[in-house]
Amino acid sequence: MDLVAVGLDELTPAQVDKQHEEFGATPEQLKQDAETLREWIAMQPHLPKLTENEDVWLARYILASKNSLERSKKRIENFFTVQSRWPEYFRAPTVDEGIAFAEFIWGGPLPLLTPDGTRLAFYKFTPALAADPQNMNWMMFYMLSLGYVQLQLTTPRQPLRIEVILDIGNYVMGLNTSFVAHLAEFRRFLKCLQVALPLHVRRVHMVNAPSMAVSALDKLVRPFLPEKINQRIVTHDSLESLAKSIPHYCLPKELGGSMEQSLKDITLKWTTIAEECEAWYESRQWMRADLSLRPNAKEINGLDGTFRKLIVD
């Protein structure tokens, strides 16, 4: 998919060079390592066979895995495995599903990058969700989030790090009940991020958070997160506080910025390319492990194990 066509900025050539420098990589070395990784994948009986067409994607996986070939092998094997084990997390919503979800949550990547080349993404609970929290579709939330992370990792000249902004001014107690009822879905979502999708989380900003939301975060979410991520969750008591952390021109007006596009506009724009997203997912259905051929198949159960090592910088 063409993320620029959707309105997302790319890294400049200078930012791409800095990204390589940050991880001690060069384009030539990444190209060679991608070929090595592809050859290793070809020797694994349970993994799909890749061609040179996937080398750019593999190179980005290596770079996102801190330029470690060994770490990349584990991440890429897990990527194919979780798609086979939990396919419900890896599909595109229909147009109707996207529009229905947008009534209760606005969200998606913001168009502009920060000066250091970080992608911003936002989620905002709407008044409609506060009025009836049982309408919260947690699986759709996780599915869309994982889909964007995959796009980010797949697309050249897109950042490999992200900051998330959560506007939860419309948080109500009923969302606690809904979240707990779907806790297993949340844990699997975290596991997919943890073991298979190495996009680096810089910070998580909580805006307009009522005390009950902060309490829910502390009791229901933080116990499953590694300490580094917990330390990167920032609670802002005002939009002015958020604007001190992120340039105003990167933020929509609802978040204290100066962008003309509204959060709802950005959300609905993604629903207009639902068919393109569906075709993109369909083109990747072969990227799954054959679990029946996996050596030491019992180790797959490890995916239900610890949740303490999300990828961090």
From TrEMBL:
Domain of life: Eukaryota
SUPFAM superfamilies, alphabetized: CRAL/TRIO domain, CRAL/TRIO N-terminal domain
Pfam families (UniProt xref): CRAL_TRIO (PF00650)
Protein name, per record: Uncharacterized protein LOC117638899
CRAL-TRIO domain mapped to chain residues: 97-263
GO MF term list: phosphatidylinositol bisphosphate binding
One GO cellular component term noted in the UniProt record for this chain: membrane
SMART domains named among the record's database cross-references: SEC14
